[in-house]
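Example (one chain per record):
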Amino acid sequence: MNMNNWKGILFAGMVFTTQMVKAQTVEEGIKLYNYERYTSAKQALQALAPSNPVANYYLGLAEIGLENYAEAKTIFQKYPEDPANNAGLARVLFHENKSAEAMSMLTKVASKAKKKDWAPFKYAADAITYSEGGDPNVAIDWYKKANAVEVNGGTYVAMGDAYRKTQGGGGNAMTNYEYAEEFAPVKSMANYKMGNLWYAARIYDSALVKYNRSSELDTVNPLPYKALADAYYRISKFKLAKEKIEKYIDRSDKTIVDLIEYANTLFLAQDYPNAISTINQLVNKGEADKRPYMYRVLGYSQFETKDYGNALQNMDKFFAKIEPKKIIPSDYTYYGKILMTDSNKRAQAATYFDKGIALDTTKDKAPLYKQLAESYYKLNMYPMAASYYLKVIESNTPTLNALDYWYCGAMYYYEKNYTSADSIFKIMNDKYPSEPSGFYMRGNVAAAGFDKEYTNGAATEYYTKWLGLINIEDPKKKDNLIKVYTYLALVSYNTAKKEDSRMYCQKLLAIDPTNTNGLNTLKYLDTKSK
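Predicted structure:
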């Protein structure tokens, strides 16, 4: 998709592309609703609703999809005796936290099912499945009764969604989606739903297979493209994530919510300039006042582009306007990182990092600790970096590895806390005895902290161990070898091990012929030997 062309139509009164042709039948309107194209569904169904209760019902559902509950209620009330529209009213009651009234109404709806009329069971069950406050087990029972009258692919899809709301219902959900896949009209949606199950289980390769299949089965279905963008992001394929979200936007209604989703994915795909551009156009139209979370994406993206002043300004707006319950851990951690870019506000950052940690309910907080440690490391604030790397180690996460110990020890080394550094590198060496870098760093710690005058050989054991673990012909090791050979040559000289000193000087000069320490030490050795 050409970004320049896309921007040209983006805000021109939300003009729809030629793909978004007005539907002429109730079935087409329902399809648009199922694809979550609520604006298009609304436009398609408005002319049909006055004479068709089913069209009216889906028109009301489209309003609910757009979060227009008052309008939906008015629409549903136009058919006071119709089961579908009564089920729609129950959805509004659930939204109003009137669950008992809603369930009473749905029980009456379900009772209107007849020997060959299974639809009331499904209308009633859908109201529970796609609202909050009802018992999904009741919905499942009604779906089963509907299918006992007439087996239907849409009922299987909805029953799978209901099972997903029950404890441990994933297996039954997958089974129902697989049943649904046998019915051509819902084949695409069934694969999309199966992809969602795999995605929730973090098995992204399997999710991608189902999402791609869904998009192939119905190329105008926008939902799998959004899901593909999310899944590709999860496996760090950012270019593909961006490609898929653009295909989603092409097939969507380009509503404000669609465009925010687009900007979110651009941010996740690390296309920060276009994320900023998209959100700024929405902000300039006054949309951020109604949806203050838009300032989040803007502030995050501006931080990533090093526009720290605007990032701070927009995050301040975000915190001023957002409901406290909608704040997420990364809001505090990003704010802390932004504060760290201003030397006058840097001291405040730790407070927000702590708030982010406290709000984070995930069991494994090691990724968050690493993120904070890296922020301090980049500013050479080694004591704080060390404290967060230590938290990574103490969390004992399953992903803990040698590099985590290395970074923790290195931060202590850089801050000249040699005792703590030595302790960390000792643990690293014991746990990963074949990893050379731990021995090299422990040698550096010993040399800098406990043998500045090259007199006691505190680093000799660790440097020697390191030499035995590496390929000394590796050109990438040249600088390290110069440091190690220099130390060993000088220690050997100062402890009267002249032959060892000569040997290390020769090794040093072999890779660095003009090395002053090597040349001078050899000179002294030659002078004393005469």
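Caption: DSSP finds 30 helices and no strands in the chain.
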